[in-house]
Structure to design on (128 residues):
């Protein structure tokens, strides 16, 4: 049986992949809302800080072509366990749409909710 820290790393890694799958789909808002703590903040390049306070505003900000990529990959993924119910993930993002490249560093902080699910607290991207 894996130790608790290995399990946390695996669960958070799976959630980070779910986050990026959602971010790169045609309509990410609904899935991001499901993945997020109700007080989550999202910081994307050249956008104001997004919160879930107003779901309509959140959905509007993430409408296509926002992050709609033909391909993407994340690498140099590092998971830092803050405590048994919190972790942060950093990674590099390589994506492309119609020949245009998107390169960024990403940082997501996750917390484990009372139902045991890991949820986004903050997500930030810095375009490089």
């Amino acid at each position: 049986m894996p130790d608790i820290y290995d399990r946390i790393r695996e669960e958070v890694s799976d959630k980070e992949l779910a986050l990026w799958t959602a971010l790169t789909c045609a309509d990410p808002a609904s899935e991001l809302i499901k993945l997020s703590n109700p007080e989550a903040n999202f910081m994307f390049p050249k956008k104001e800080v997004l919160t879930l306070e107003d779901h309509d505003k959140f959905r509007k900000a993430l409408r296509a072509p926002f992050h709609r990529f033909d391909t993407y990959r994340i690498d140099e993924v590092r998971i830092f366990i803050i405590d048994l119910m919190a972790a942060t993930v950093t990674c590099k993002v390589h994506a492309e749409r119609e020949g245009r490249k998107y390169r960024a560093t990403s940082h997501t902080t996750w917390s484990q909710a009372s139902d045991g699910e890991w949820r986004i607290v903050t997500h930030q991207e810095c375009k490089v």
User: Anything to note?
Assistant: The chain has one domain: 4-127. The mean pLDDT is 93. The radius of gyration is 14 Å.
